[in-house]
């Protein structure tokens, strides 16, 4: 059990270092006037571009208030992320309900795993967009899956 946990921590650390090492260019946010005003506010804990293996995909660890894990709010969040990062070809945002866990996803694994509530993915080249999330802590983070492919901008 301890050996397996150690391997998971090493794998997460490797991914984190790959993301941080690949952060060659800052994430470009689009003008704020294109952001939908009804979308929940999010805070970026950690951000960086992946290495060549991940085709320079932007990875974000974001946190939002736990009260926003409902279908309408998550659709608005997906729209906000799509518009806020309109210059990014590929984007994956891990959605957490705790800012500290979003800031330190590799150091505090217990707190991180408890706070992980979903994932937003956008690939403009392949025309893929979806959001997965859980409505409450302890439920699978892919409890609700919303395919947004028809609405890619």
Keywords:
153 residues, alpha+beta, 6-stranded mixed sheet, 4 helices, 6 strands, 30% helix, globular, disordered N terminus
Q: Any idea how many domains?
A: 1
Given the helix and strand composition, which structural class is it? alpha+beta
Structural Rg: 15 Å
In DSSP terms, counting alpha (H) and pi (I) runs of 4 or more, how many helices? 4
Order of strands, main sheet, comes to 1-2-3-4-5-6
User: What pattern of helices and strands is seen along the backbone?
Assistant: HEEHEHHEEE
Strand content: 15-25%
What is the number of strand segments?
A: 6
Overall morphology? globular
- Report the average pLDDT across residues: 80
Low-confidence stretches: 1-26
Distance between the termini: 45 Å
Helix content: 25-40%
Largest sheet: 6 strands, mixed
Q: If you had to describe this structure to a student in words, what would you say it looks like?
A:
- The protein is α+β, with helices and mostly antiparallel strands.
- The protein has one domain (2-151).
- It has 4 helices and 6 strands; from the N terminus they run αββαβααβββ.
- The chain has helices spanning 2-21, 71-84, 99-103, 109-115, and strands spanning 43-49, 58-63, 90-96, 116-123, 128-133, 144-147.
- The protein has a 6-stranded mixed beta sheet with strand order 1-2-3-4-5-6.
- A hairpin with an 8-residue loop joins strand 1 (43-49) and strand 2.
- The longest helix has 20 residues, at 2-21.
- It is globular, with a radius of gyration of 15 Å.
- The model is unreliable at 1-26 (pLDDT under 50).
